[in-house]
Amino acid sequence: MLLWINGPFGGGKTQTAHEIRRRLRGSVICDPEHAGFGLRRTLPPGLRGDFQDLASWRQGVVEVLDLALTKHDGVVIAPMTVTNPDYFAETVGRLRELGHDVRHFTLLAQRETVLKRLRERGFGRLLQYVAGKNAGLRRESWAVQQLDHCLERLREPEFAEHLWTDHSTVPKTADRIAVLAGLRLRPNNEGALRTRVRQVGVGIRHIRFD
User: Fold this and answer.
1) Alpha-carbon distance 55 to 59, whole Å?
2) 169-200: buried (b, 16+ CB within 10 Å) or exposed (e) per residue?
3) What is the mean pLDDT of each run of 10 residues along the chain (210 residues)?
4) What distance in Å separates the CA atoms of residue 30 and residue 32, rounded to the nearest whole number?
5) Closest CA to 142 of 70, 78, 50, 74
6) Which letter does DSSP use for residue 21 in this model?
């Protein structure tokens, strides 16, 4: 089974994916974004746009996830924002055509909620202190620019199943996905402090500067 977790940038996809992986034995995360950034870095700076526009990314995602789903004995989790219906059909739709059990979920929240999460994800004060006033926040700025488009597009029925997360914690969102997908997660026995520390660690590991 593939759990494709969609949603706006800063909507909680990565944190939710890691929460599910932590509590679901045998599950793995295969992040399509890694392939995209690799392709993007291959190009000269002046040609670096949205890597999803590259057919090689869409085809590569299908090839890699097809291999993982065929050979790995466990649930595969893919946290990835896709708002273009054609690209959605070429990735999620194509994997379904190949016979895979793909469960797609879109995490949604009000604009103000996502903006708050983006500010927290950016680690702005730390980055400004270490690297200067304008360092490190380009990705968050780009995410803000895309936010209204993402929220509008992802509300469409083709991107269901929709999960609103404004008043939900990451562990609770993971629980909801598991129930809807017919999976059983290990109980979440972490305290609030340990959960927060672990989530900060996940966030730090996923900071990118390009």
Assistant:
1) 6
2) bbbebbbbbbeebebebeeeeeeeeeeeebbe
3) 95 94 97 95 94 97 98 97 98 98 97 86 48 49 85 96 96 97 93 74 62
4) 6
5) 50
6) H
Burial class, 102, CB count within 10 angstroms (exposed 0-12 / middle 13-18 / buried 19+): buried
Q: Which residues make beta-bridge pairs with 76?
A: 2, 28
Q: Which pTM does this prediction carry?
A: 0.85
Number of neighbours of residue 205 by Cβ within 10 angstroms: 9
Q: Render 35-65 in DSSP notation, one character per residue.
A: HHHHHHHHS-GGG---GGG-HHHHHHHHHHH
Question: Hunting for tokens 């949603």 — which residue is that?
Answer: 7
Cα 175 to Cα 181: distance, rounded to the nearest angstrom: 10
83 in Cβ contact with 154 (< 8 Å) = yes
Distance between CA atoms of residues 59 and 82, nearest Å: 14
Give me the amino acid identity at 156.
Answer: E
**Residue 153, CA distances (Å) to 49, 115, 197 in order:** 20, 17, 33
Residues contacting residue 69 through CB under 8 Å, at least 6 positions apart: 1, 2, 76, 95, 100
Which has the closest alpha carbon to 2: 20, 15, 11? 20
